[in-house]
Design goal:
235 residues; Nucleotidyltransferase, domain 5; alpha/beta; 11 helices
Length: 235
């Protein structure tokens, strides 16, 4: 039995030393004939340095909700969230680079990760956007509204991502998605400049070569430009 554990976190900021204040998870289990999405669960944690108002405005977790006896999210709590309830074979998150900033590799190793955002870019380049909520409606997923809402909370986001993962598993293997996660984002279109919105095959070669020479360019953009140049050269 293969167990894919979808993780979602809410935090006090966009990067450490911001703190985790909620962890949600949902298991997606291979039962032979089909993949089964389990029940979401989540835990709140008390930050040591408070929650900025602009962050509360995203997930609406207030300091009153995580006061009193609410535990702090230490390594032991993270280890329990990742490993308890049946050992997972793979960890999954939508844009897992974010979760991996906050959950140390010493806790998750040797588990591989699947990034459903990167996988969706590969599987569905034609999607209008690739956030989990846009994909939810674009794929017309039939979800339990009580479990899928509100967005930007750990359990609902993990639940929505689990069903997106289920959709991805109809067009890609677990091994495919692990491999895609190890690579930069395969961008379906150029995201900036005079060729914004164009497919990578459309701009002239000298423009792509210029992109690869820019030291301050997004590494994913540079990788996509180099990938297209490599395709044109037949390498």
């Amino acid at each position: 039995m293969v167990r894919l554990r979808v993780i979602d976190i809410e935090t006090t900021g966009v990067a450490p030393p911001a703190e985790i204040i909620e962890i949600g998870r949902v298991d997606v289990v291979d039962e032979g004939a089909a993949w089964r999405v389990g029940q979401p669960m989540a835990r709140l944690y008390r930050p040591l340095r408070g929650i900025p108002p602009e962050t509360m405005a995203v997930h609406h977790i207030t300091e009153e909700m995580v006061g009193g006896e609410t535990p702090v999210c230490n390594d032991d709590k993270l280890r329990l969230a990742v490993w308890a309830g049946g050992d997972p074979d793979v960890l999954v998150a939508h844009n897992c680079d974010f979760e991996r900033m906050f959950i140390p590799e010493s806790i998750t190793a040797p588990l591989p990760w699947i990034c459903t955002y990167k996988a969706a870019l590969r599987a569905w380049p034609e999607a209008p956007r690739h956030s989990n909520q846009v994909l939810r409606y674009w794929r017309a997923l039939t979800l339990d509204a009580a479990l899928a809402m509100p967005p930007h909370r750990a359990a609902p986001d993990a639940y929505v991502t689990a069903y997106i993962l289920g959709e991805l598993l109809t067009v890609a293997t677990v091994e495919d998605m692990i491999a895609w996660t190890l690579e930069p984002k395969l961008l379906p279109a150029i995201p900036f400049g005079k060729h914004r919105g164009s497919a990578w095959r459309e701009p002239p070669t000298d423009y792509l070569e210029w992109v690869t020479r820019q030291n301050d360019m997004d590494p994913d953009v540079v990788w996509n430009a180099r990938r297209e140049l490599k395709r044109r050269s037949g390498a």
